[in-house]
Amino acid sequence: MVEHLVNVGCRDAAERMAHFLLELGDRLAFVGLGSKDGYACPLTQNLLADALGLSAVHVNRVLRQLREAGMVTFRDGFVAFDGYDQLVKFAQFDPSYMDQKGPLLPWPNADVAEQSGFSRQ
Hints:
The chain is mainly alpha-helical. It has a single domain (2-115), classed as Winged helix-like DNA-binding domain superfamily/Winged helix DNA-binding domain (Arc Repressor Mutant, subunit A, Orthogonal Bundle). Helix content is 51%, strand content 9%. It has 6 helices and 3 strands. It has a 3-stranded antiparallel β-sheet. The termini are far apart. The relative contact order is 0.16.
C-alpha cells in the first residue's frame, strides 16, 4: 500500500508509468505470463490513465517519452522492455515490497488436487 501511495504522490508521470509497467510485468512473470522482455497487456491508454491518475493525452506523451528514451514500447497490446535495466533504474523499481517467494498456486499441483479429492481421470 505504501508503494502505491508513493507512486501517486511522489513520482512524476513518466516514473509512475514506468513503475506501473514494471510492477505489472513482475506480477505477470510471477505466474508465468511475462518476462524481462515484456508481456501481453490488453489495457488501453484510457485505462492506464485511470489507474495512474493521468489524462489519456498525458499517458500518450509519457509512453512516447519512454519509447524515445529506448526503455519501453507499448504497442498493439504488448509491452516490450527495450531497456529493462535502464527502466528499473529510472523508475527506482525494487520488487521486494511485493514479497513474492514463489508461485502461489503451482499448476498442476498433484498434492493439492489429491487432498481436495480431485483427480485427472
